[in-house]
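Design review, sub-item: ligand-bound model
Attendees: FS, YL, KQ
YL presented the inputs for the ribulose-5-phosphate complex:
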Amino acid sequence: MGSEIAGKRAAGYTAVDRFVQNNTCIGLGTGTTAFYAIERVGQRIAAGERIVAVATSIETERLCEQQHIPVVALLEREIAVAIDGADQIAPDWALTKGGGGALFREKAVALCAKRFVIVATPSKLVPALGAFPLPVEIVPYAMPYVVREIRSLQPDIEIVRRGRDAPFVTDNGNWILDCHFGEIDRPAALDSVLKSVHGVVASGIFAGLANDVVIGREDETAIMLPQNG
Ligand code: 5RP
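KQ shared the predicted structure:
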């Protein structure tokens, strides 16, 4: 097994084993690390447990179906814990997410969950947010206005995501702008400014939401990250 993959699996499996209880509803994230949390929940269901899930994307819904995990709607049941990946994790556990374009539903599930657990590998730990472009979900009609307003904050903006030939379309039918702000020293404040722009649906900044961070390492072990922000 490739070492990065071993770390992702260790993080996903450890988070499920530690935080998911039988007879509960959980939130399941999107991406290559959250994949292993979904796989582990599938194993627990196959062993007879009764766990249901809210999916953060159409892709995760599809994976849940493959793993025979019943999917329910947002807040159809109380969400005991949501488990999801991240693109960057700052020392105070402010995050950027949305590398997979699922940030709006991911944030909705995180906001509804009683506990929000991040699964990641050490490569996601950063001294400050910003090296990875910040995904911002926008309503396509408003794109010229949104771009003009966000540009006044001086980031470089990619309207067409790298490696694509058209804007990234989200599960909600919106577009993603990838914004390069450089170092983000006040993530919550930037999130508020972005949300105030008419046409912005959500930004990929998740500040003050994570309760736990599970880091999976190349040797297939995982640790709970101590918070030092
Ligand atoms: C998707 C996300 C993912 O959680 C994030 O991009 C991390 O993904 P991966 O675990 O594949 O690195 O926010 O919108």
